[in-house]
Write a structure and sequence with these properties.
Layout lengths: L1 E5 L3 H12 L3 E5 L3 H10 L3 E3 L3 H6 L6 E4 L5 H11 L7 E4 L5 H12 L4 E8 L4 H4 L2 E5 L2 H6 L1 H7 L24 E5 L3 H28 L16 H8 L8 H12 L15 H12 L4 H13 L5 H14 L6
Parallel strand pairs: 1-2, 1-4, 2-3, 4-5, 5-6, 7-8
Antiparallel strand pairs: 6-7
Helix pairs in contact: 1-2, 9-12, 9-13, 9-14, 10-11, 11-14
């Protein structure tokens, strides 16, 4: 299929390359043309354009444009502009970390013009090029059926993960390939939002656990109760046969193997919105979410003084998403 990819950052660029590898023709647009040219050199079936007008003109109908920009004003402006340029039957995909309430609003506006809107919650970080992307998406059935070949190419596929016992024919087989139509517009980003809220809690638990072990050598403790524990070795042994393995633990082990003190990290841990939105949803639904809430508040506190735990959080965020600490 032929589609436009607007926004070629850490994930958008890799997604364009992966699509080209799977035989799709990708038209590339980025604010900085040099970035587009770099991705073009890696993606054989691609071309570069200089602006949205050229992007839209280069695509056959129904036109498919995947927007992969930071959430907020820049994405809002891009989709508003596309809404005034596209025609009935065309499809706008937002694959960034947008708040699901914005998706619901945008879908209504575009629907009035006959334009389809699909929100794709995308997980996979900087590793998605090779591993594939786990995707949770929302939109009307006509639109998601049309772009299914694109989504299947981006998804990781079944791989070597054994199917869950008891899954019957009433369950969506795409879930086993790593992508899932969750419902109407907004539902994809809602599910991804909760996914990231859970991620906050999991990361916090690992971070606190390693901090507790590291402090077991503190001179505040009785001498016969002090242990000099090797964090890298502990992370490694937990990866093998324990009940708490995960990709996040793999990232902990990788960071600790390089430097057990995590000296390259300050522990100033950012939050990019999804944790806050998850807690807001919990409040609206009267659902208790103390773990995710505490994890978010810890990130706030990390910006005024850091612990080893927060350095561990920074290491994990850098590992899966290439997120660099910012003061």
């Amino acid at each position: 299929m032929k589609l436009g990819m607007y926004g070629l950052g850490r994930m958008g660029g890799n997604m364009a390359v992966r699509l080209a590898r799977h035989g799709h023709e990708v038209v590339l647009l980025n604010r900085t043309r040099a970035v587009s040219e770099k991705i073009h050199a890696e993606a054989s079936k691609s071309s570069v354009v200089g602006d949205l007008e050229e992007l839209v003109a280069s695509l056959p109908s129904p036109k498919i444009i995947w927007v992969m920009l930071p959430s907020g004003d820049v994405t809002e402006k891009a989709i508003e502009t596309l809404g005034n340029m596209l025609s009935k039957g065309d499809i706008v995909i937002d694959g960034g970390n947008t708040c699901y309430k914005d998706d619901v609003r945008r879908a209504k506006i575009l629907h009035a013009k006959g334009i389809h809107y699909v929100d794709v919650g995308t997980s996979g970080g900087v590793w998605g090029l090779e591993r594939g992307y786990c995707m949770m998406y929302g939109g009307n059935q006509e639109a998601v059926d049309h772009i299914d070949p694109i989504l299947e190419s981006l998804a990781p596929g079944v791989g070597d993960i054994a199917p869950t016992a008891g899954r019957g024919p009433n369950l969506n087989p795409r879930a086993e390939k790593g992508y899932l139509h969750c419902g109407p517009a907004g539902s994809g980003h809602f599910v991804k939002m909760v996914h990231n809220g859970i991620e906050y809690g999991m990361m916090q638990a690992y971070a606190e656990g390693f901090d507790i072990m590291r402090m077991k050598g503190s001179d505040r403790l009785p001498e016969d109760q002090r242990f000099d524990l090797n964090m890298a070795d502990i992370a490694e042994v937990w990866r093998r046969g324990s009940v708490i393995p995960s990709w996040l633990l793999d990232l902990c082990a990788d960071a600790l193997a390089k430097d057990g003190d995590l000296a390259q990290f300050q522990g100033d841990v950012a939050d990019t919105g999804e944790g806050r939105w998850t807690i807001e949803a919990a409040i609206e639904e009267a659902v208790p979410a103390p773990v995710i809430t505490a994890a978010l508040f810890t990130r706030f506190r990390s910006r005024s003084g850091n612990t080893y735990a927060e350095k561990m959080l920074s290491a994990m965020r850098f590992g899966f998403g290439g997120h660099v600490e910012k003061k």
